[in-house]
Amino acid sequence: MDLHLKDGKAKVTAHLKLLNSIESKFVLSTIVSIEGPLRMKEQYVEGILESPSVVEETIPEQLKGAYGQALTTIQQLPVPVKDAVTSGLRVPLGGTFQRLFMISYLDEEILITRDTAGVPEVLTRIDSPSSSTMPQTNDPNF
After folding, report:
1. What is d(CA 129, CA 113) in angstroms, rounded to the nearest whole number?
2. Number of domain units in the chain
3. Is residue 113 part of a domain?
């Protein structure tokens, strides 16, 4: 899972893989705001389930027939439906769902948060602090 956090907005990307043959991504867009010195709020704006891609060479032999039937069915769909399937599924969330979390630890490389149930999340910085695409919050220490 990847998280890109910058200027109060976050994009979380979960990479999905099924049967080592079907790959997709779920992308969640959020707005992050500071609620106190150690507390932040995340409001979910939109979720996108990208159309899956299939690596045909890795499909198990017993599933190749079903895969061929699925392809034939998709080819027969009306063009607007086919376009909707290939562009992925967008779910507007409009800030309806949110979560609060507390910052437990923060340094140049690691951010540890806990949600209201106490479940921790450990985030590590991938980009260097001097990179222009580094994850950021409004906290000058991160």
Report:
1. 20
2. 1
3. no
